[in-house]
Amino acid sequence: HAEDLRLLLEHLNLPRAHLVAASMGGAVAVHIALERPELVRSLTLAGAVVDGFLGWQDEYGLRLRRARKIAQTEGVEAALKDWLGHPFFGATRDLADFGRTVVRYSGAGWLTSARPPKAPGSDFSRLSEIEKPVLVVVGEKDVDPCRAIAEEMRQRIPKARVALIKGAGHLPCWDRP
Description:
Strand order of the largest sheet: 1-2-3-4
């Protein structure tokens, strides 16, 4: 995904960009900021996950593996129905626009591997290397691991600040636009 983003920036003739990302997109943006910092002006990360964070309870990994298996065996639509029951979407799943948008998801993240084999070191362990301004947006009702990631980013990234969105869950842009 990071290479796709790099190619998109190149195609759009954007030598540097302000990256805004949510959830798994946060992992992509953080990776670009670490591996290709010259492409990044700033980061805004909402409900971000970061590769290498070890604070996930087993339930999260099990649900993700289950969604992938369902997508591969029963189809993406069945996987989406299951995935929307995940705690990530507790504050969001009843919003009509969210449901309609998610239903359009291709399932690419479940049908392919999002990470290259033998990825270099943990991005989470390298957060202190990010020298760009970073705004970390986190919902008050987001899942515990994402709130922990937000706090770790605030502590480890020199130019980071956190905005807590009251009443929002994992996707503050949907929950409390």
